[in-house]
TrEMBL record:
Protein name: Response regulator
Residue positions where 4-aspartylphosphate is found in the record: D57
GO BP terms in the entry: phosphorelay signal transduction system
TM annotation in the entry: none
Native species: Comamonas terrigena
InterPro entries: Bact_response_regulator (IPR050595), CheY-like_superfamily (IPR011006), Sig_transdc_resp-reg_receiver (IPR001789)
Taxonomy, superkingdom: Bacteria
Keywords attached to this entry: Phosphoprotein
Organism classification: Bacteria, Pseudomonadati, Pseudomonadota, Betaproteobacteria, Burkholderiales
Amino acid sequence: MKLRAYIVEDNATIRENLIETLSELADVETVGIAETEAEGTAWLSTNGHHWDIAIVDLFLRQGSGLGVLAACQERSAQQRMVVLSNYATADVRARCSQLGVDAVFDKSNEIDALVDYCTQQSAAA
């Protein structure tokens, strides 16, 4: 079963590469994208049964990925929230943990770990 992903990322190049990589390597189907906090929050909250994993960048064109994460704390138990950011510092990881994030990945050196995580989630579904 394909894992249904919603991606909140404002950089088009990163977003398109991520969609392609996850589709090819992790059996992930992207069901939507957002470039801003408002778009991401609105879609995720009104389409609760249409996604399995949300991949969120912290720095967006407008707003913050932290706002998206905070808005999704009441998601269903099987839905996963992950952060993919260039700023995956210890402080950021701690804040994400407080917001109920399932995993944090650094864009610069943990893409393979994100792919592995998605593969595991897809197999478990």
